[in-house]
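User: Okay, second chain of the day. Same drill as before: sequence in, structure tokens out.
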Amino acid sequence: MDTLCSKCWDYKWKIRAHNFHVLLTKMEIEQIAAVFVGIAAYFGVLYCTKKKVQFEPSILTCVLAPFGHVTFSQVENNLCCIECHLKDLVSGLHGLHAHEYGDLTKGCDSTCKHFNPENKEHGGPMGTNRHRGDFGNILVDKNGICEQKYMTNVNLHEIVGRGLVLHEDEDDLGLAQNDESKKTGNAGKRIACGVIGISQNMCHPCTIK
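Assistant: Same drill. Structure tokens below.
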């Protein structure tokens, strides 16, 4: 039976299409099949690559030395939860923003301006008329501690690798009637900064031997 099938493959195959006769050998059929497999594999890799680019880590973290750290977690598309774990700060409101670059070679200055890819005016942590890096204010209690959770409109993939800056003063959220309000919220001096990175907590707990 196997011999008979083998002999069958040795015959030329006749395929009728649009009044043309195409004669294909077994080798030619295998070559055509290999081409289609290659095309399918190419589009499969392309799809996987695209999905990989769209991948978003579940948790980001940023150390704001010497005060503590801030984490970001994706709640849904265009909505993240900011969680602050900070201490030894002056009580009151302090502006918090994502800046363009995660470059600390010149301290906080080299993080440059607020992250603002849509070139909009400064605003609060929610809504569309704002910088994507506008995270509003954190509230520090009378003991200098900030343990706070709140929401902001941003996706993790937008801010990973960028700078996070904590400011000395309250952010007016762009509501004051002056030019600086529309740029920085009059949040004042940069008192701490760090680079927003992927947290190891998204994968597994840290084990120190």
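The radius of gyration is 28 Å.

User: Thanks, on to the next one.
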